[in-house]
Amino acid sequence: MYPAIKQAIAKEDYCLSVEFDNGERGILDMKPYLEFGIFQKLKDKNVFQRVKVAFDTIEWDCGIDLDPEFVYEKCRKEQKAALPETPTARR
Questions:
Q1: Contact 60, 48 (CB under 8 A)
Q2: Is the pLDDT of residue 83 over 50?
Q3: How many other CB atoms are found less than 10 A from the CB of residue 21?
Q4: Whole-angstrom Cα distance, residue 75 to residue 15?
Q5: Is the pLDDT of residue 89 over 50?
């Protein structure tokens, strides 16, 4: 089972910043898909900017939605920042 999408934010150059419910984050580059079928509607930057999360995945007002499995697999995952080490107490 793939993690659900918690947040999707449209960025410049037809990329989406995506946050999953397991704490992972990534960037989904939509440019390779903009020449195919219904995805051509997303070339309009105003349409692309109206991305939202619904039913654990990404969708747009124009009727386009993405399979959550596709989103998770195609996202370029961002590295999680390492937590600073907790200082040890001295006696």
A1: yes
A2: no
A3: 12
A4: 10
A5: no
